[in-house]
Amino acid sequence: MSKAEVVLLDCWASPFCMRVKIALEEKGVEHEDRGEDLFGGKSELLLKSNPIYQKVPVLLHKEKPLCESTIIVGYIDETWPSQPLLPTCPYARAQARFWADFIDKKVFNAGSNIWRNKGEAQEVAKKEFIECLKELEGALGEKDFFGGDAFGFVDIIAIAVTSWFVAYEKCGGFKVDDHCPKFSAWMDRCMHRKTVAKVIPDPEKIYEFVLMLKKMNGIDA
Question: Cβ(90)–Cβ(97) under 8 Å?
Fold first, then answer.
């Protein structure tokens, strides 16, 4: 497969883009990453490929665009079916999609509210964030990964979001491991996978990126 067949419109700090890259790595799909300048001017290709939301990630497969990270990961799993990411059982697949939806709707937003706020509002955000992680710990149970023994769909959706956790911890003055040790152990297992370690950036760089966002939005450090 030539790289031109699979192109990802990307932003290095976006956990949503990281999901797509991890899925492609898991499947062994060659692809070309094209970084987007989300602040200085989005490319015409991005605006044309995702006219509704005008954001990354966008996966172009044979020039056909796909948007929204969870949908893209599902598409990758169906298009390159070897080493499936989703379970074969319909009920288990539905459960995996439920937890992916929970992560999308709750975890990233709760974490973002930590760095976007201070004082009492930040404390509320921290509490909500930790409660979300405890729910995920419950779903993980005693398993190595969310799907059981094998790294899969929910793990990809979740581990990408954890790339921002150090920034949340530094902004909020807390440690995830103190509250959710099982979830922290799962994070460590995931980070030992080559496909994950290759994609997830240095957490200190993400923290610097968050500090830049705070400054841009007039939020006191």
Answer: no
